[in-house]
Specification:
Blueprint lengths: L2 E6 L4 H12 L4 E8 L3 H11 L3 E4 L9 E2 L2 H6 L5 E4 L7 H9 L3 E4 L3 H16 L4 E3 L2 H9 L6 E8 L9 H5 L3 H5 L8 H9 L1 H14 L6 E5 L5 E7 L4 E5 L5 H9 L31 H12 L3 H17 L5 H14 L8 H19 L3
Parallel strand pairs: 1-2, 1-5, 2-3, 3-4, 5-6, 6-7, 8-9
Antiparallel strand pairs: 8-10, 10-11
Helix pairs in contact: 4-5, 5-10, 5-13, 9-13, 10-12, 12-13, 12-14, 13-14, 13-15, 14-15
The protein binds NADP nicotinamide-adenine-dinucleotide phosphate.
């Protein structure tokens, strides 16, 4: 039986790679829907090639070859066995909730969903018997390592360190957009690439891991590992450490998530060889240079709406940086300023989360004028 899948964000970095995986495993999948943002040209090419029943584009409706459906309609369609949520930013949250309420399993790339509303989404998934399978390579690694979460003492999340790992704070402060987008290991969408340059991405991943694996923040450690071969690890209570390794390719975690619990050769390009890897380095993150990581831990430990504030301020500031309106370090200054002023709401509802999100974005935009 073919697995029926919809891909939210099929025109993005994860979405395009997911389609490459599906192309290799074309007897295993039937595509129900594909969705894009503004790249309707690519979306229409994908529709021609993969023949989904439905399609959605955020900015235009001139879709050809598939019936137009909204994200909510796509995520309510119980024909789906699984939905890959690969849009970036806050857009992922509502469709994920809709899919959960319709009992549809989720392959989750959109980490912002759990950063904004992990305390609502994870219990809801449990209530509806829905599996949330992580796509992020670190969480996919941890998912593969864990047999019994009750026996796990610590999660160890690796970070490549991004393009500024060996740069000074001053070099990083004056970084151009092109320098921030020049990630040494991963070719990703712009928002996550900037997050990787500040290490905010790692901070968001720590919050994501906290929710996915129900692990307290003081049991989640980040280690810089520039080669991106060890994708993450866990330490069991008895001191045994289990790590997941592989060549740095998002095809592997995407395929794992959408075919789980089965495994296929699929898109694997070459076999892993220890002897071809010269060395594996690990180091403590530079907490002064990568203050975003500390801010994310602080927001996570504060709980309530603190992570909503962190996410909204960061996302808005990343967009402003990409448009050349603020400097790279102003992203962190914005997040810090917003977090300092934020009156934390305990256990916010989804409606409150979106209100707080809007409010923080508006305040962040006011702050940009002062930089
Ligand atoms: N890329 C990676 O390697 C990677 C790894 C781990 C986790 N993730 C996570 O996966 C998510 C996606 O990342 P990405 O790198 O694939 O991002 P991306 O390349 O920027 O792709 C984002 C997707 O969302 C669509 N989109 C944009 N605005 C939209 C809107 N208003 N409504 C509906 N769709 C919209 C885009 O469409 P258009 O392009 O047509 O505008 C595109 O299909 C992020 O949450 C990221 O943190 C990514």
């Amino acid at each position: 039986m073919k697995r029926k899948i919809s891909i939210l964000g099929s025109t993005g970095s994860i979405g395009r790679q997911a389609l490459e995986v599906i192309e290799k495993l074309n007897d295993k999948f039937e595509i129900i829907a594909l969705t894009g943002g503004s790249n309707t040209e690519l979306l229409n090419e994908q529709i021609k090639k993969f023949s989904p029943k439905y399609a959605y584009a955020a900015n235009y409706k001139d879709i050809t070859g598939a019936e137009y459906a909204t994200l909510e309609e796509i995520c309510s369609n119980k024909e789906n066995d699984i939905i890959l949520v690969a849009v970036s930013g806050r857009i992922g949250l509502k469709p994920t909730i809709t899919a959960i309420k319709n009992g549809i399993n989720i392959a989750l790339a959109n980490k912002e969903t759990l950063v904004m509303a992990g305390d609502i989404v994870m219990p809801m998934a449990k209530e509806y018997g829905v599996k949330i399978i992580p796509v992020d390579s670190e969480h996919c690694a941890i998912h593969q390592c864990i047999k019994d979460i009750a026996q796990v003492d610590k999660l160890i999340i690796t970070a490549s360190g991004g393009p500024f790992l060996h740069k000074t704070i001053d070099e990083m402060k004056n970084a151009t957009v092109d320098q921030a987008l020049a990630h040494p290991r991963w070719n990703m969408g712009k928002k996550i690439t900037v997050d990787s340059a500040t290490l905010m991405n790692k901070g968001l991943e720590v919050i994501e891991a906290h929710h996915l694996f129900n692990m307290p923040y003081d049991k989640i450690e980040v280690v810089v590992h520039p080669q991106s071969i060890v994708h993450s690890a866990i330490e069991y209570v008895d001191g045994s450490v289990i790590a997941q390794l592989g060549l740095p390719s998002m095809h592997i975690p995407i395929q794992y998530a959408i075919t789980y619990p089965d495994r296929f050769e699929g898109i694997k390009s070459k076999s892993f060889s220890f002897s071809q890897i010269a060395r594996l380095d690990f180091e403590e993150p530079d907490w002064d240079k990568f203050k975003a990581l500390k801010l994310a831990y602080d927001a996570g430990k504060t709980e309530g709406s603190a992570t909503v504030c962190l996410n909204a301020a960061n996302e808005e500031a990343v967009f402003a940086f990409l448009k050349g309106k603020i400097k790279l370090f102003d992203i962190i200054n914005t997040v810090e300023a917003m977090m300092e002023k934020h009156d934390v709401v305990k256990n916010p509802s989804i409606e409150e989360i979106f209100c707080i999100d809007e409010e923080i974005r508006a305040k962040s935009r006011e702050l940009f004028l002062k930089f």
